[in-house]
Amino acid sequence: MAAHVGASRTPQEVMEHYVSMYIHGNLGKACIPDTIPNRVTDHTCPSGGPLSPSLTTPLPPLDISVAEQQQLGYMPLRDDYEIEYDQDAETLISGLSVNYDDDDVEIELKRAHVDMYVRKLKERQRRKNIARDYNLVPAFLGKDKKDKEKAPKRKITKEEKELRLKLRPLYQFMSCKEFEDFFENMHKERILRAKIRELQRYRRNGITKMEESAEYEAARHKREKRKENKNIASSKRGKEDGKEGEFAAIENLPGFELLSDREKVLCSSLNLSPARYVTVKTIIIKDHLQKRQGIPSKSRLPSYLDKVLKKRILNFLTESGWISRDAS
Question: Which residues are in the SANT domain (predicted)?
Fold first, then answer.
């Protein structure tokens, strides 16, 4: 601008004139806002963004014993492991060399190899940062159990454990503190929702003051206690009358009162009416007695008695001592 104006103005004078008239003058005050909205976040800043150069910055070495270092294959002075993530990443650049006669395509290809290698290094360091942030190395060595015993936390429910497993892929996007705060806030949310439901229940029952809720809860506890005692008494009566209730399908049929408890169970399991069972039982015992007396007899069992029913009834009569085993 000074060259365009001429020799009458120096570059410093031209700059001062522009700043005073156009930036700090009336025109600048009218056009330039005090705060610039919608600033774009710089993801390459060294504050730990996804493209931050700090991702490749080595961390301080782990505080572990020599035996544990050997177990992990860890080299503390380099903060490296004998087996790293993507162990063959160095092969991308190990054979590269810069030659003066390289054309543009070869140069760009070598730059692409270097860029791929740098990305692999960043991924390698990112995984180390995650392992360091979530204390995965002490967990692998079993040191975190002592820390958990020293600092007791709230009991984690089964549902929360399952949710933590489902959200485990999010570990790489959140720090350990952010992840724990996330679940702690979800726990607080569940508590608040339960409290809100309780207050809504009070309101539905006509309670508008917290002083009245204590009296309501005491009365509700008494009602539940009476109901529980009533259920216990009814269950005791049910045990006494359980056998009759168990045989509801056959208790109104003729011949039911002639059966013993075991015979009732048998008829109920075989879906056999008491009258038919008594008929089959009479025929089998009569034939058995005739055989013992040496009287020949032909067994004429009813047609509704198949092989399975006959075998079950014979076994039952044998176990009960009505007939001998050789007869069955």
Answer: 1-26
> With contact defined as beta carbons under 8 Å apart, do 124 and 89 qualify?
yes
**Spatial distance between the Cα atoms of 3 and 23, rounded to a whole number of angstroms:** 22
Tokens encoding 308:
């399975």
Instruction: With 0.70 as the threshold, say if the pTM is over it.
Output: no
Helix intervals (H) in 88-209: 104-133, 136-141, 144-150, 158-166, 176-204
What proportion of the chain, given as a percentage, has pLDDT over 70?
82
- pLDDT at residue number 240: 53
Query: Closest Cα to residue 249, out of 218, 271, 276?
Result: 271
87: which DSSP letter? T
List the alpha helices (DSSP H) in the chain: 2-5, 11-18, 26-31, 66-72, 104-133, 136-141, 144-150, 158-166, 176-204, 210-240, 242-246, 261-270, 274-292, 307-320
